[in-house]
Amino acid sequence: MCIIFFKFDPRPASKNAYRLILAANRDEFYHRPTKLANFWGDNNEILSGLDMEEGKEGGTWLGISTQGKLAALTNYLQPRLDRDARGRGELVTHFLTTNIDSLSYLKKVSMEGHLYNGFNLIAADLSTAKGDVVCYYGNRGQPEPVVLTPGIYGLSNALLDTPWRKLSFGKQLFQEAVEQSQALSKDTLIAQLLDVLNNEEAQLPDPAIMDQGREYVQPFLSKYAAVCVRGPNYGTRTNTIILVDVEGHVTFTERSMLDKDPTCWETSTYEFKLQS
């Protein structure tokens, strides 16, 4: 279970506005080996955490490059998984390491979507000169990817903007923070977005989650139905905030659980200028 909220406006009217504000949670088993976010790639041009699970090393759930490529992934909640399916984290890594544009990439992915368990994939080209393009594809939805119009979006473990109660609740909190963004310092905005991501209020009842997850989700529903998932062995392990301003300055903040301990966290921030 993961959740992503984002707002983008390629041509904001104010110089104090952000072209992109993204806030995301990665939910995973606490024991799954993971590298914290850092720069990697041939020229240290890609910034992301990395999955180190055996057989899926090098995949990731969210990343951005200095060239302006950004991708984010959530799994689609399904009662039974195909254990022989390809690792979904490679979908993000492949986009970040190729020169293909976001829409063309998602069209290619859509032709191979049957090889994976259910997923949602956001791919974006952020260009200060040409304007930003953000695209979406989910392999349990429409057969073709779509180019998104500027606005505010929410994505969890159903298709884009499916109104699960926790998604609608979190999206409203995200929107309230975003609407104040120009009046807030960057640090204050990041703090408010982290508060959104760490809200543990269960949004129940939610027939939509129960219908999609069926018997699989029932034992965990009270935990899964919150923006921040907090179970004994599984839950929100990583909060990520990405801000991109009018001039292409990127601020990437990651708050990560340490030592499988939900009371122990480390926060790191990286800043760079898009080269596109």
Automatic annotation (TrEMBL):
The GO cellular component terms are: cytosol; Golgi apparatus; mitochondrion
For this protein, the record's Pfam families field holds:
TANGO2
Q: Name one GO biological process term.
A: Golgi organization
Task: Extract the PANTHER family matched here.
Answer: SER/THR-RICH PROTEIN T10 IN DGCR REGION, TRANSPORT AND GOLGI ORGANIZATION PROTEIN 2 HOMOLOG
Protein name per its UniProtKB record: Transport and golgi organization 2 homolog
Recorded source organism is Loxodonta africana
Upper classification of the source organism reads: Eukaryota, Metazoa, Chordata, Craniata, Vertebrata
